[in-house]
Amino acid sequence: MTINPYFLSVALLAGSIIAYEIALVRLFSIAQWHHFAHMIISLALLGFGASGTAISLTQRWLMGNRWKFDEVDRRFHNAYTICGLLYSISVVVCFVLHQYVPFNPLMLVWQPSQVLSIFVLYLILSLPFFFGAACIGLALLRFAENVNRLYFFDLFGSGLGALGIIVTMYLIPPAQNLTLILAIGFCAVLIANWESWKTRQWRRIISITGIAAAFIVYLLFNPISIKISPYKGLSSTLNFPDAQVLNERHSPFGVLHVVRSGLIRAVPGLSLNTQHPVQPQLGLFTDADGMTAITDFSGDLSKLGYLGDTTSALAYHLMEPPHVLVLGAGGGGDVLNALYHDAVSVDAIELNPQVLELVAKEHKDFAGGIYAPDSPYPVQVHVAEARGFVRATTKRYDLIQIALLDSVSASAAGTHALSESYLYTVEAFTDLYQHLTPGGIISITRWLKTPPRDMIRLFATAVEALEQSDNRVPAQQLAMIRGWRTGTLLIKKGTFDTADRAAIQNFCRERSFDLAYYPQMPEVEANRYNQLTEPIYFRAAQAILSNERKQFYEGYPFNIRPTTDNRPYFFQFLRFDSLIQMVRAVGRSAIPFIEWGYLLLIATLIQAVLAGLVLILIPLFFLKRETTAPTAHNSRFTNWRVFIYFLSLGVGFMFIEMSFIQKFLLLLANPTYAVAVVLCAFLLFAGLGSFFSLKLKTVVKLRQPPIIVAIGVLSVLALIYLQLLPPIFHRFLASSDTLKVVVSIGLIAPLAFFMGMPFPLGIEWLQRHHPHLIAWAWGINGYASVVSAILATCLAIAFGFNLVILLAVGIYLIGGCVHLRRERETAA
Amino acid sequence: MKQLCFILATFILSIAVPSHSSDDDFKSDREWMVKRQINAQGITDGRIGVKNRSVLEAMRRVLRHEFVPDRYKSQAYVDMPLPIGYDQTISQPYIVAYMTELLDPKKEHKVLEVGTGSGYQAAVLAELVDHVYTIEIIKELGESAEKRLKQLDYKNVTVKIGDGYFGWEEHAPYDAIIVTAAPDHIPPMLIHQLKPGGKLCIPVGGRFQVQNLTLVQKTESGSIMTRQVMPVVFVPLTGDH
């Protein structure tokens, strides 16, 4: 069997496009902030759909006279080559160019002219997607009769691209991935010019190779640099006169910088009364922000006295020297805190292996070898995702500490609003609770926000988790304190007795921390040292524990309802009704209360929908003239049915893919690998589904059209998975990583296989009946994918992932119904 | 097309608003700033306005446009933070005035400022107190602030280049301390250098965000209390709570 060189070229391009998208998200997260990355890249992806519009408008010229095959081939070949070259070049050029756009997202509120910069960024960054997708769209138009194979190569390439970029992120610095993507783009163009090799058109070959070589050689000697926002933590720290970057590491988990400066001192939650000097520290930055400190530890525990004056030290005052589990070990602050309090053993869990390596090896002497394999201290480090580790281990702990690793500014700005966190959910607290020894304590520390949010939601989540277990008395099992910047919540497996309460009172009095809640606490003890206008935390705790909980949730200006695995957005507190009232009441002064993450998501959705609709509708005016339908009335109906069908496929696919990625995160634990495995499996098996889609009818005798069968099967599978996945995951949680990956792929395979069928079957149907609509359909599918990715996040935040899956099934079924009607009418 | 858009956007963003030729031209801007953005009587957007007459007068006197880079002079009296180079910003006028009022400055007071920046906050304080000691970690910023303050004839401001974490023991104790950058903890030495009855004000929030303020008070007995002070009154808007 010979493979069409264009198909190979499409596979390479598709792989490099998805790699480019993932690389861009990483680069933006380093240079700016993640939520802006999400918005700008989502909008830039509209270039994908715009390519469909452009091809629709130019297809008459492109395809020329259908009977003159040479002319069609030449035009198609030239257009493909030019778009491929422009794609490859723009991958790098547009990234470099965008860094010169004077855009400071933080100024957006103050300087409306920043909006112009955003639009310039959209335009620049959408170009690579436009040219790359144009190549695939052109191939789709040219080889519509082999769409099943072409789409297979498209998805197969995408799957490998998603996996490949995760690997290369370990091997080469983030910005240099763009050079690799550029090189792959050029390779794709050369492969597409296979005929030119065979027919010895050396001028063309030499031209392409020359351009490619010039760019690659230039970039090898002049590596692309990232301009990090001057307002990120790393940039500010590097302004210190003695600041020096000691190490830099990169991986899919982020870019790490270790900075030395005598001015670095990070002790979240330190009491104002402390008399202990803070030890020298190194700053460990992730993605140029979110600093965690590596502390100078000589082995003299008495020098760590200041750690005992933080809110997170409370639990140690309520127990004998404990066996401790630290979730989110980072630079080691909480591990040192445990050692300072004579912990019998410490299991330190950290997701990023490079963080552990830096502390354990590079800065072993500075950090006192706390993470080293030959550590003289009872510390054992584990590279794992916190929730996954807890579910897999059979050990029980006296104290489980959830560390405070995110930066305070990120927390204040609500930049995590779009990030899922499976550590602060009802189910997570239940898991942790089950791993406590009798009398053991879970201790969670968070930054305090004004007005209060985080700690109240933590309290509510803990209450619900305790209520769901048998024989629990939440009112007796919880304690909460706060300093001026941090608060700590304790959940005890048992009740806080009189001695505990006295210890909590003493601990807070000596350090000027405020009591927010403990069993039978009188209000008069609240809000003494760090005064708010009223004892909000105390009253919130009382309300949550009372029968008025529901009214309290509804009346509070922020969303502080407990978070669950189905809606794991702990950091999303925004309530639109309150926001509107607040803006009406106080105008611009409402700004400090706005969490930008969610608002930007909504802004992104609105922009994407508007831009998408405009670009989708434009070709309709021109396509009218080309329709083969006998009447304008029929033509309009056909157009709308094609529109709804391909829209539903784009939306349905993305909704299911995104929701199941989230669901599989719980099984696979490690978010980076989970996304890579699940995304890759989805794309590869959908590719296989596409490959076999046209054979479906011949292999199995079907009473219904293959599209209906495919949609029916995938809908049933999605609904079954909704019920079956939780028990299946529970069964395999403690299994080896390899087995978990195999199980995940096994579960994804059948679903993805059938999800890969409706698109090529739809294109094949168009090829037979309305070939002039193929490029338009490609564009619609592109827009739908972009918009639905944003919409899925919005819906998941508001209603949870289960609803997104149900909606996806409904949307797929609508697409199926539309096709069925279309098919019957055509047959009639 | 992309080139056109880029050039157009760059052009629009870099358009220099016609600059004022003399300080007198800014006087009306300053008056407007105080009246509309700072004074309690003029603010209509729900914020707590500044009532202290001497603070308002100081805000009227200090030439804010001298403390911002030339390209931002035209925006000097707009109520927004502005970049001043070296990745630092000058706080919005409202925050400067509000923080100053919180410290309750008196003629005889000695004030320590940690984070000189361009020197604007120090100049406002210098209008109100006996002496301002200010520390800046970034040498270039500190030196240019010192030069600027001298040129503007602020004789009661002393600038030091150094680490503000340890305060300035030599001139301690202080009646008030103002920390212009929010660390994750308040340096113990600063608390130590505060007089009994003294106040320390620290803004919490990132750059370009409107910041919530924390006021630390050292009682006559030496105990420490903090108070969250927000630039707007937080009134729960729905329900009973």
Name the CATH superfamily assignment of chain B.
Answer: Vaccinia Virus protein VP39
The secondary-structure class of chain B comes to: alpha/beta
Approximately how much beta-strand content do the residues of chain B carry? 15-25%
Distance between the termini of chain A: 38 Å
Give unreliable regions of chain B as ranges.
Answer: 1-21, 232-241
Structural class of chain A: alpha/beta
What's the number of helices of chain B? 7
Question: How does this model look, in words?
Answer:
The complex is a heterodimer of chains A (828) and B (241). Chain A is α/β, with parallel strands linked by helices and 828 residues long. Helix content of chain A is 59%, strand content 10%. In chain A, a hairpin with a 2-residue loop joins strand 3 (281-286) and strand 4. In chain A, helix 6 packs antiparallel against helix 24 (671-693), helix 26 (706-732) packs antiparallel against helix 27 (737-755) and helix 26 packs antiparallel against helix 30 (801-827). The two termini of chain A are 38 Å apart. Mean pLDDT of chain A is 87; it is low at 408-413 and 628-633. Chain B is of the alpha/beta class and 241 residues long. Chain B has a single domain (3-234), classed as Vaccinia Virus protein VP39 (Rossmann fold). Chain B has seven helices and nine strands; from the N terminus they run αααββαβαβαββαβββ. In chain B, strand 7 (194-204) and strand 8 form a beta hairpin. The longest helix of chain B has 16 residues, at 23-38. The model of chain B is unreliable at 1-21 and 232-241 (pLDDT under 50). Chains A and B meet through helix 5, helix 14, strand 13, helix 19 and helix 20 of A and helix 1, strand 8 and strand 9 of B. Strand 13 (530-531) of chain A pairs parallel with strand 9 (224-229) of chain B.
